[in-house]
Amino acid sequence: MKNFILALCPLLVLPAFFSCTSTPYPKTGDFAQEFSADEKFEFDEIWGYVFYKRENAYNQELPVTDIGYFTEAITSFSQVPAVPPKEKYFSGTQAKVHLVTSCDSRSQTHLLLSPELPLRDKIIDGLLDASETYDGLQIDWELVSPEDEKNFLEFLSLIKAGLKDKPLSVAVPARIKTLEKDAYNYSKISQVADRVIIMAYDEHWSTSKPGPVASNDWCKKISDYAKTQIPPEKLVMGMSFYGRAWRDDTLGGKAYIYPTIQEILAKNSVKKHSRDKDGIPSFTITKKMTVTTFYDDALSLSVRTKMYAENGINAISFWRLGQEDREYWKYLKIRANSGL
């Protein structure tokens, strides 16, 4: 998942068919024939992620069957951080609450997965203890190297055995085909895990060209592929609530060698510079900047949701609660036989 908050409205350039405010579906336009005001999309499971210290983003009125409680990552000293018991923030909810763990270092992940080191058993024991009051445990380790595929699967198998009757879920990146070397092999992971949550977002990212965080065509390709690899009762398609912004100026935030600095001075007709008390020169360039933003509102989310529903997807998840257009929730419904 992602561990940031992005507030984008208003910015300078926005896609013409999106709105920064929570509004019902438009009466006219390209999507006018696709939806009715009372249309709802039904799923067996609807997962919502709740970020640590943002617990108030969840309320029991939301149509959510499962909560992924995203807590602090494994520490730099390879310790499972202390987590509050489920009852502290989620007492009384009918939704299942799954503790979510992450690891933010590729090298540390490699060491923690190594069967030759005592760290693996230590982390497994720590995760099982931390999740004791929760309904399940989710592994969201996004920096597993392809070379660690075998070790990752063994790690998941040991955790699943330790959880006994509790469900194990695993978050995996988006794929549209099977890779030759991949620690996130959908088929193999689904043989161990009870749920596989596919993070079908970040089609465009902070350093890519501007574009949707998740376009429908791209998401459909992912779900089509996933259905061939993961049993339908285990597949959960992840959706994002955040947007991204790109600026057209790339001068800032970089390091430059002296010849390049001279080129920048000449290109921008900089005539003056100043020096500090140590004689170090500096200059300022003032430029207009265009910001292009892509994000989702109730309409665009519903278009994607309808695509998943029509594509036979039984479960969806959202990263993360508190970032969404609240109008969207009225179009979701938990299927009657889901158990909630």
Description:
The chain is an alpha/beta fold. It has two domains: 41-245 and 296-338, Glycosidases (TIM Barrel), CATH 3.20.20.80; 249-288, no CATH class. Helices cover 24% and strands 18% of the residues. Strands 2-3-4-5-6-7-8-13 form an eight-stranded parallel barrel, surrounded by four helices. Helix 4 links the parallel strand 5 and strand 6. Helix 3 (119-130) packs parallel to helix 4 and helix 6 (216-229) runs parallel beside helix 8 (298-310).
Catalogue the unreliable spans: 3-28
Q: What is the average of the pLDDT values?
A: 90
How can the largest sheet be summarized? 8 strands, parallel, barrel
CATH architecture of the largest domain: Alpha-Beta Barrel
Order of helices and strands: EEEHEHHEHEHEHEEHEEEHEE
Number of E-type strands: 14
* Text of the CATH class of the largest domain: Alpha Beta
Give the % helix: 10-25%
- What gross morphology would you assign? globular
Domains, number: 2
**Which sequence of strands runs across the widest sheet?**
2-3-4-5-6-7-8-13
Question: Helix tally?
Answer: 8
Distance between the termini: 26 Å
